[in-house]
Amino acid sequence: MKVLLAGANGYIGTRLIPVLLEKGCDIVCLVRDKRRFRENSDYASRVTLITGDLLHPETIKDFPTDIDAAYYLVHSMAQANDFSDMEAQSAKNFITQVDKTNCKQIIYLSGITNDDNLSNHLKSRRHVEDVLEAGKAKLTVLRAAIIIGSGSASFEIIRDLTEKLPIMTVPRWVNTKCQPIAIRDILFYLENVLLNDKTFGKTFDVGGPDILSFKDMMLTYAKVRKLKRHIITIPFLSPKISSYWLYFVTSTSYSLAQSLVDSMKNETIAKDHSINDIIPHECVSYEEALRLAFIKIEQNSIASSWKDALNVGYLNPAFMDQIKVPQNGTVEYKVKLPFKQDTGKVMSNIWAIGGNRGWYYWDWIWGIRGFLDKMVGGVGLRRGRTSSVDVFAGNTIDFWRVLLADKANKRLLLYAEMKLPGEAWLEFKIVEEAGKKFLSQIATFRPNGLLGRLYWASMFPFHVFIFKGMAKRIVSYEQIPVQKAAN
């Protein structure tokens, strides 16, 4: 069967691809930029890529007409304040394309919407269902509450809060009930509704066996991690204060924090259990889902992370166009350091930069810069890394986005997502000249007017110490080898 996947670079889409390949599907992935797709993954050569932005239908090229089914896994809730309009328009443009094909079924992953007075987020999900249902193909909707898995937004937010705050004063929404579900169970349902005619034209609630409050989930997380945590509920915290609280403590953007807080007033508990009559399946418990997530984290085998999705970033979707570092109108700071250490070791240190490893030198300065970035609405340092050992184009590393991770040419290129009066690139490269090895490290800044030039001038004294110190530590850092799990 031939299956189209919209949202292939997202958290769910990335994990669904190998599941569908194992099922024997011929997969066509609709992506905005082929360069961002992980071409060095195990399945890259086994899928067909077509390009297009569903918000700009004129960009969609080579949409196949012979597809049997299509997954719609596109969400925009963190991209802008008008995300509901964007989601509706994206779905309409998708239906326009699919209606020209032989597609029999569209599968959409939505949110549980059994409450009255739905949040804007859940209203938008419900409206997208209505838009997709108007198409010629039969619609199958899976409605889920929060999804728990390594790299999922819900898991990472619970992790941020519980790991960092021994005592939490929290808003009253922590007592709202929901029915979390493990990522493996979501993938099971997404796989098994595919071209299952018993699911055509139907909507199903899916959830794990546990009904918990957000407070329960944080305390269960603490139990699994053997942490002592105390949670104090403060009923008068406003939604705006709650949003800022999430924004500063976790790795979410402020717009995403607003959407999440708005949604947390709604209980998301499965009421329709008819999926069990069609696809019998025993979902894992919330506690077991946490344990499975940590197994992936400890093995450095996180397949995808919500932080890497562009709809939670701060860049234009065409950010990969910045892969060519400009030469004109820019200022630079260069470090070129000779070294005698093993090239592979130095490469590993470059590839491990950021996240838990840190930036090798004066991490406290990087921490202050991250805090200041948060204060002005930026991303800060809290996003960390998806994996501590691997990095791919499109990944995030703290407040940088990876443009290029070219092991063959020993080059790592980062593009800044922090708030700046201009644009910034940071490049690491190992070069050989006259039989000697050098670590080349170049910070490039394209200032935006006078403010940008003043910013660069004020930061230059710090760059002199930070970048020289960082280069010296990269070539000398002794790491403990990590055994990577087989996929």
From TrEMBL:
Domain NAD(P)-binding, chain residue ranges per copy: 7-144
Protein's UniProt name: SDR family oxidoreductase
InterPro entries for the chain: ComplexI_NDUFA9_subunit, DUF2867, NAD(P)-bd_dom, NAD(P)-bd_dom_sf
Pfam families to which the protein is assigned, alphabetical: DUF2867, NAD_binding_10
SUPFAM superfamilies: NAD(P)-binding Rossmann-fold domains (SSF51735)
Domain of life: Bacteria
Residue spans crossing the bilayer: none
